[in-house]
Amino acid sequence: MEKTRNHVQASTPDHFEFERWLRDARDGGSRGFTALYEWLGPEVKRFAVGRGARDADAVTNDAFLGVFGQLASFEGDARAFRAWVFAIARNRLIDHYRAEQRRPPVAHEDSHGDQAAPSAEALALAGLGSERVATLLASLTDAQHEVVVLRLAVGLSLEETAEIVGRPVTAVKRLQARALDRLRRENPKQAVS
Amino acid sequence: MHDDDVSPSDMTHHEFTDDDAEALLSGATSGDPRLGDALDDIRSAFQAIDPPIVTGALTEFVGADSVGSDATDTTGPAVVSLNVNHESPRRHPMLTSVSAFAGTALGKIAIGASVAAASVGGAAATGIIDTPFEENSVVETEFVEDESIESDDSVDESVDDSAADSLDDDAIEIESGLDDDDADDDSSDDGDDSDDSDDSSDEDDSDDSSDDGDDSDDSSDEDDSDDGDDSTTSTTIPNPGGVASVSHTVDGVGTVAFTYDNGIWTLTNVSPAAGWTVSESSVDAEGPDVTFEMGELEVDVDVEIENGQIRVRVRTENDSTDEETEVFSYYAIN
């Protein structure tokens, strides 16, 4: 097992805490912005790293600028907000890849099924510190990869993940099962070390 | 079939069932010898990633002035330290004009004002967002405070206009994420591997999120002989057919679980969160109704059929501030 520095993951705020943050941010208060960013910023960065973004910090920053710029249009609770943030982050990731003239790392509507997941090298460059984990993730198809990153790296639920990738829950469950089969084949018997 | 979903080597037999995989990924199952420590290692590798560095225009929002200050102030959000880099050495060229606008003090004020206007004066629902926590659900919030409406539309428009291009992308994507065709898709998912091609293609073919064109609405007005009193736990209405099992959680308040089976409502569980009490719990012809209370806060969870779907309305009332909000969630009946 690798030595890791585990950062504390911010927990989902309760109904009233979230409303307070949102209200403060909508009033232009930096405390509200900060709390929302502190809550979801690390998750968005992990998503960006996991999807092989060359500059995960920039993706995260851009995503939150988009989020804060659109707070007027947001309606919903904390969980809806999280899904909304990731939908924006996913778009920002596509924007960044387009700017870099690389293929988008997310399987979106106009994809034609010929995409591979980000390579192990791309994941390492993005900031994923474990070569072994990068190799494992690179063995997945792109759709499997995105789902696994959202589930394991970000910690989203099945339903949240389905929401963000725009697939039915049952389809995501199937992707997950196939992804684990792939990981099993890439990781026979022994534990990853 | 989309190759990004399934590779030929995946189409043999699956060692992991869908439920196996979900149990492992959700953490319900601690591990599996077939995978060794792979999942834990993946989790750990990502947990080790440093928090994001705040750069450029974003520092205006989450700037150093707010970082770590007033930690004892209980009226505002908790604030902990952030990685703030005002020098922005890694600022990406993709920072857009919208971002630049939003990062200015004027942008913050305009955004804040427009949202405040929407939340105070908006009589109609202004947006629909899918809830990520329940399959086939849609959340729609309506702020119902009857305060005077000031001339805020212009502010809204100024923000929207300034938001322009890159925000449009987000809006499109968000709306595409709202597609609520799962019920249709699910019916094709129970077969073999080839179903995934359906799943993928289905992503593209819908636009409308909340109105699926279901004709079987108007259920609530049906006059039936079983009105039920407050003490019953189930009742019947004629329409629509189908079944659903829903556990709806209001974060920090409580959970209401119920089933709907071809017109029969059953309230299966009501669980208040710590500090909350249940002041009302009933089922009538239209559906369950549960009220949670804590001090001057009251949260009413009202369930009924609307346009062929289950609609859960969460109304929050704060007697001390006279503030009142409503959040709507929708669940499909299968």
What is the element layout, followed by pairings?
The complex is a heterodimer of chains A (193) and B (334).
Chain A: H1 15-26, H2 30-50, H3 56-69, H4 78-99, H5 120-126, H6 131-138, H7 142-154, H8 158-165, H9 169-186
Helix pairs in contact in A: 1-2, 2-3, 2-7, 3-4, 4-8, 5-6, 7-8, 7-9, 8-9
Chain B: H1 18-26, H2 38-47, E1 53-55, E2 83-85, H3 97-103, H4 105-121, E3 128-130, E4 138-143, H5 153-177, H6 182-187, H7 195-202, E5 234-236, E6 243-250, E7 254-261, E8 264-272, E9 277-284, E10 287-294, E11 297-306, E12 309-318, E13 323-331
Parallel strand pairs in B: 1-2
Antiparallel strand pairs in B: 3-4, 4-13, 5-8, 6-7, 7-8, 9-10, 10-11, 11-12, 12-13
Please give a quick description of this structure.
The complex is a heterodimer of chains A (193) and B (334). Chain A is mainly alpha-helical and 193 residues long.
- Total number of helices of chain A: 9
Question: Could you tell me how far the N terminus lies from the C terminus of chain B, measured between alpha carbons in angstroms?
Answer: 26 Å
Taking all residues together, what is the mean pLDDT of chain B?
57
Oligomer: heterodimer
Unreliable stretches of chain A (pLDDT < 50, length at least 5) are: 1-9, 105-114, 189-193
Biggest sheet character of chain A: none
Alpha-beta content class of chain B: alpha+beta
Largest interface summary: A-B, 133 and 134 residues
Which features does this protein show?
heterodimer; A: 193 residues; mainly alpha; 9 helices; disordered C terminus; B: 334 residues; alpha+beta; seven-stranded antiparallel sheet; 7 helices; 25% helix; 26% strand
What can you tell me about this protein's structure?
The complex is a heterodimer of chains A (193) and B (334). Chain A has 193 residues and is mainly α. Helix content of chain A is 64%, strand content 0%. Chain A has nine helices and no strands. Chain A has helices spanning 15-26, 30-50, 56-69, 78-99, 120-126, 131-138, 142-154, 158-165, 169-186. In chain A, helix 4 (78-99) packs across helix 8, helix 7 crosses helix 8 and helix 8 packs across helix 9 (169-186). Chain A is globular. Residues 1-9, 105-114 and 189-193 of chain A have low confidence and may be disordered. Mean pLDDT of chain B is 57; it is low at 64-81 and 86-232. The longest helix of chain B has 25 residues, at 153-177. Chain B is an alpha+beta fold. Chain B starts with 17 loop residues before the first helix and ends with a strand. Chain B is extended and about 50 Å long. Among the domains of chain B are: 8-47, no CATH class; 234-331, no CATH class. Chains A and B meet through helix 1, helix 2, helix 3, helix 4 and helix 6 of A and helix 1, helix 2, strand 1, helix 3 and helix 4 of B.
